[in-house]
Amino acid sequence: MKLAWSLPALDNLDEDQLEQVWRLAGGHPRSLEYLDALLSHGTARYPDVTARLSAAIDRKLSGADRAQWLAARTGLEAALAETVALAADDVLLDDLLTRLGQVAGAPGVLLGLSVYREPADHRALLFQAGQQDPTAERIPDRRAVYEQIGAILADAGITADESLDLDRVPSDVQVLLAPHVAELNREPAPPYRPRPGLTDQVVACQAASLLTLTGAENDRRYFVHRWTATELARRAAASDPGQLALAHRQAAAYWLWRVQEWPQDKAADVHDLLEARHHLLQAGDTEEAAGVTEGICLQLQTWGAWDQETALIHELISELPADSRRQGTWTGQLGNVAYLRGDYAAAARQYQKAIGILERLGDQAGMATSYHQLGMLAQRQGEYEEAARQYQRSLDIEEQMGDQAGIAATYHQLGNVAYLRGDYAGAGAQYRRSLDIEEGLGDQAGMAASFGQLGMLAHDEGNFEEAARQYQRALDTFKRLGDQANMAKSYHQLGMLAQHQGDYGEAARQYERSLDISERLGDQANLASSYSQLGILEQVRGGQIAAAIALHVRALAIRVALGIPQAVIDLRRLSAYRRELGAARFTGLLTSPAGNSGVVDAIMSLLDEFDDSDSTT
Questions:
Q1: pLDDT, position 433
Q2: What is the mean pLDDT of residues 212-229?
Q3: Could you give the dihedral angle defined by the CA atoms of residues 245, 248, 249 and 252, in that order, rounded to the nearest 10 degrees?
Q4: C-alpha–C-alpha distance, residues 365 and 370, integer Å
């Protein structure tokens, strides 16, 4: 500890404090130099130590305030804790890696495991340090197993449904089922075998305290501390970036293999895809990461997780080359998210921006998609002629390219335009053309949308039994797909059907189910539809006028903000209430839902304009 006496800040410590330094930081010169510098507000006795400390702080701060960080570490306790970490960075890790390098292949194993952001299982280890061997892969044929189990149960006269408890079936049936159940429970194995010496390499990493092993032997997890992993990545990026990129690619391959082969739910799939995406971006494989992002966003959109989807898209766009065709595709997807949220101005901006990018790149498929999106936007805003024009532009390209899925989607939208114009025969023809293609492609989501529209046609024609059948087919499919936004629409349709049949209790129940989902998703357009329809229902079943007015006011506020033509529905209802109640009483009932006099005045002004225009038509 003689060095301590030559370092100003340490020389001022008493004997008990020096003992504490010895116990916690040891006597390595670099440790003592760092501690002295920290106690001296970042300035060491020797300039090279100050420079090393400054560089180490820069790596830790990530933009935080340097003076504030140093001030928090001028006390002995805090300075000692930080010294241990700094010395590990500058001294101990070097020593440990030198020792680890004596075991051939061990540093590579450590780097491979360090790129995983969470404890990795033995399969993840094999992707990093195993020998590729297709014969080692074992994937249970679950479909075949389920068919065999179903056949055994059917032969025994047992119905296989969600309530079935295999532990309660007769013992002789259990014997027949046992090998098939065991096959279902067998975990998939990847196409890799442990390479010679892998166990010794793992033991060496663990002995050097650089790798933590947790879990039982049959469920072992490997974890590299995040500080160590960050430092290993920094060093590898400087000395051998190719090896670091390869480790990330192998990690991505592991997570993608899990999505493909592991029996798990959609939430677990999204987690694994997000991990694969992270590793591909770290490896610089932006185009591959974009492909993975498509799968993630498809599921997030189905769940209505639009904030997370938007964040992922923005991050990806910032990583894509300026000449990537995906720039236009993902810009259009931002428009889709805005459209689904009812922010039509933002949707229009993103679609037009996408068109500009795609035209510049000559991306015909992307242009067809963007024309289709512009058509949907025009349709939602009541501009049916413009919508049909944009859909036809999209269809022309899709037919030239032979894009059957695109053709089906455009037929469907042309059917919607015909329906909105009152051309039910034309709408039905387009929906059936779309459905024929969707069935051939096995497109469940497209089929569900067509079922819903065919239900609306039957509903409008007074064929309520057929309408209920088609609505339910659509709802069942959307449930199976986990498509929350379209489930809300199906509940709304079932509510309208019940209302028209006079079953007001069932109608209210279905509208509330739709409303609950739309509130959770933040789907403003569908929220407005539910509020408006609940307002109409309140009137037809003889409910409270004040409640009906409040619901129409909420719907009107959203629809005016979105700039959609459906606002006229609520204006017409509110105008009728004003005539019925008189201006004074009506204004009094507006005060509570409107919230303030300014909003009341704005609604009254809108009603005056509506009445004036209505009287001149």
A1: 95
A2: 85
A3: -160
A4: 9
- Give the CA distances from residue 10 to residues 25, 33, 89, in Å, rounded to whole numbers and listed in that order: 12, 9, 21
72 pLDDT above the threshold of 70: no
555: part of which helix (H) or strand (E)? helix 545-562
Instruction: Please count the CA atoms within 13 angstroms of the CA of 531 that sit on its side-chain side.
Output: 25
Domains of the chain in sequence order:
2-100 (no CATH), 488-615 (1.25.40.10)
Whole-number Å distance between alpha carbons of 184 and 262: 11
What's the rounded Cα separation, in Å, for the pair 121 and 274?
17
Helix axes 344-361, 326-340, angle to 10 degrees: 170
Per-chain mean pLDDT for the chain:
85
**Is the separation of the CB atoms in 156 and 205 below 8 Å?**
no
How many other C-beta atoms can be found within 10 angstroms of the C-beta atom of residue 12? 10
Q: What is the pLDDT of residues 495-529, one digit of tens each?
A: 999 999 999 999 999 999 999 998 887 788 888 99
Of 172-186, 242-256, 431-445, the poorest mean pLDDT is in 172-186
**Of the listed ranges 46-60, 237-251, 418-432, the one predicted with least confidence:** 46-60
Burial degree of 402 (CB within 10 A; 0-12, 13-18, 19+): exposed
pLDDT for residue 265: 84
* Whether the Cβ atoms of residue 556 and residue 574 lie closer than 8 Å to each other: yes
Decide if pLDDT at 423 tops 90: yes
Tokens matching residue 116: 């995983």
The continuous run of DSSP H or E covering 192 comes out as: strand 192-194
**CA 139 distance to own-chain centroid:** 28
3-state secondary structure 465-531: HHHHHHHHHHHHHHHHHCCHHHHHHHHHHHHHHHHHCCCHHHHHHHHHHHHHHHHHHCCHHHHHHHH
Q: Whole-angstrom Cα distance, residue 443 to residue 446? A: 5
